[in-house]
Amino acid sequence: QVQLQESGPGLVKPSETLSLTCAVSGYSISSGYYWGWIRQPPGKGLEWIGSIYYSGSTHYNPSLKSRVTVSVDTSKNQFSLKLSSVTAADTAVYYCAEYFGSGTGWFDPWGQGTLVTVSS
Amino acid sequence: QSVLTQPPSASGAPGQRVTISCSGSGSNIGTYSVCWYQQLPGTAPKLLIYRNNERPSGVPDRFSGSKSGTSASLAISGLRSEDEADYYCAAWDDSLSSVVFGGGTKLTVL
C-alpha cells in the first residue's frame, strides 16, 4: 500500500523559495509511475502544480511554470517541489500524490498535506 | 474561476439521492475521462471515481459517476451524514496542457 508524506518549512518569507519533500513508502519510485503536487489555498479549491515521471521528465502548470521545479530522488524514494519568488498568494496546503499520467486528473493516494504560510 | 464548473453547494436528506454536476468543454471533459474526489473536513482529498465511472476498491457503490459530452455527474444514493464533504471533479485539458479541477461542491446532509 503506497503512502506519501509531505515535509518542509511551514513558514516562508515573501520572495524566497518554498521547498517541500514527499517521502514515498510501500512502493519504489524507480519502479515507475508518475508523482504530482497539488495545492489548496485556505478555504479555496484545488490547483495542480506539476508532475514528474520516475525517470525525471516533468510537466508543470503553465500558470506556475516559470517558478516551479519538481525533482525526484530515487535513492531516497522521494520527490520534491521548489516554488520560487513566493508571495502571500502561494499560502496553501500542499499535497503530494501518486499520479496516473498525462491525459488524466487521476491522483491516488494523496499525502495528508502540509500548510505553508508565506509571511514576513 | 475554474475551468470545470460545479455548483457551489448541494444538499439532501438522509436516504435521498443527490447529483453533482461538472461542466467543461471539448478540450477537457469532451475528450478525456473525469475523476471525482471527496474531501472531508480537515482531510486530504480522496479518490472516489476514476475513468468517469469506475470506483476504487473500498468506495461504496452508493457513489457512481457518469459522463455525457462535455459534462459529468457524480451521484450519491442513500445519503448518509458522513457524506457531508466537499466534492471535486478533475480532468486533463488539452488546450491548457494542464490538469484542471472544478471549483468544488459543498454537500450538506440535512
Please, could you describe this protein's structure?
The complex is a heterodimer of chains A (120) and B (110). With 120 residues, chain A is mostly beta strands. Helix content of chain A is 0%, strand content 51%. Chain A contains no helices and eleven strands. In chain A, the strands form two sheets. In chain A, strands 2, 4, 5, 6, 9, 10 and 11 form a seven-stranded mixed beta sheet that branches. In chain A, a hairpin with a 6-residue loop joins strand 4 (34-40) and strand 5. The model of chain A has no long low-confidence stretch (mean pLDDT 96). The mean pLDDT of chain B is 97. With 110 residues, chain B is mainly beta. Chain B starts with 8 loop residues before the first strand and ends with a strand. Chain B is built from no helices and nine strands.
Note the total helix count of chain A: 0
Q: Structural class of the secondary structure composition of chain A?
A: mainly beta
Shape of chain A: globular
N-to-C span of chain B: 28 Å
Radius of gyration of chain A: 13 Å
| Assembly of the depicted chains | heterodimer
**Low-pLDDT segments of chain B:** none
Average pLDDT reading of chain B: 97
Shape annotation of chain B: globular
Strand content of chain A: over 45%
Mind describing the biggest β-sheet of chain B?
A: 6 strands, mixed
Distance between the termini of chain A: 39 Å
**From the alpha-carbon coordinates, what is the Rg of chain B to the nearest angstrom?**
13 Å
Poorly predicted spans of chain A: none
Largest β sheet strand count, sense and barrel closure of chain A: 7 strands, mixed
Q: Quick one: which chains have the greatest interface?
A: A-B, 25 and 28 residues
What series of H and E elements makes up the topology of chain B?
EEEEEEEEE
Q: SSE order of chain A in H/E notation?
A: EEEEEEEEEEE
Helix content of chain B: under 10%
What average pLDDT do the residues of chain A reach? 96
User: How much of the sequence of chain B is in beta strands?
Assistant: 35-45%
